[in-house]
Design goal:
With 187 residues, this protein is of the alpha+beta class. The protein contains four helices and eight strands; from the N terminus they run βααββββββαβα.
Amino acid sequence: MEIKQSIVIRRSLDEVWQLFQDIPAVARCMPGAELTEDRGDGKYAGKVSIRLGPLTTTFEGEVEHWPEPVSFSGRAEGRGVDRRGGSRSRMAMVYALSEADDGTELAVTADLQLSGPIAQFGRPAIVTETAKLLIEQFVANIDATLTNNEDTCGEGAPLAAQEINALKLGSRVVSGSVKRWLGKKDA
C-alpha cells in the first residue's frame, strides 16, 4: 500500500535537510520506533512497535538510508520480523524537500508491505488507515520538532508504541469506504 503525505514546515530548507541527516532524531519522531544499533554506512538496526487495542506488534529489523543532497531528497528502506507473531513488514519511504512560500515543503511517500498474521488481522482498509495515521503522526512530529526548534520527539528516548484510537480509526475506515463507494478520488 502506498501512503503520501506532505506538509509545509516554517523553517528553511537547510534546517529541515539537516534534521533529515540525523537519523536517530528522525527515528525518534516515528511513533513506536527505536534505533538499537548504528551499523555504519547508513544502516541501522532497530524495532517498531504498534499497538492497536489489545494487539501489540513489535517488528525487529534493519533500515538503510540513502540521502541525495543535490536534490534535497532521499530514501529509506526497512524490513522487520515480529518474532512473537510471525508477521513480516517491509517499508520503502521516499522524502523530498523543496522551498515553499512559508518555509519548506516536506513530501513523504511510503510503500508498506505486510505479510503473515498481521496482514490477516483485519480488512485491508484497517491496515491502510493505521499506516496512514502513523505516517501522519511522523510528519507532525517532524514539523513540531523543527517549529519548536528542539527535539520534541524526546532526546534519546523512543516514543511509546503508538496506540491507535479505535474510534478515530473506525471513522476513517467508514469515511474511506463511503468515498470509494461514491467514486471520490481521494479515498
